[in-house]
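Q: We require from you a single protein entry containing the residue sequence and its fold in token form, and nothing else.
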Amino acid sequence: MSRWKKLLDDSDQRKQTLLRLQDQYRQIEDLYLAFAKKASAFNSWFENAEEDLTDPVRCNSVEEIRHLRENHEQFKASLEAAQDDFNQLAALDKEIKSFNVGPNLYTWFTMDALQDTWNNLQKIIKERDVDLQS
């Protein structure tokens, strides 16, 4: 009878362990999905911003130049929201890595690639600043 009780106790313990692991895997899955969605949206925003920032500056009047400069300043002011998105991605990445799991199968974006994207955007913004001042 005691062996039967031990078997039931061990079985229950195993079940609890498996349920905890299932919850952990579900949490990891949710983090992967959240990162993939946010990374995709961030990259889409970046591609649009890059396209706008790399358009050649061609103006026929001082008013057009003024308008371009105003738009550029508004864009730079809006970067705070993009910085927040980037920081959220970094936090998600850090949380995912804390589980010591493999690559995210929902996206090809990695935090390193997004960091390169962000750094490139900063460079493009500076170049646009120079173009608009010339």
Remarks:
- The chain has a mean pLDDT of 94.
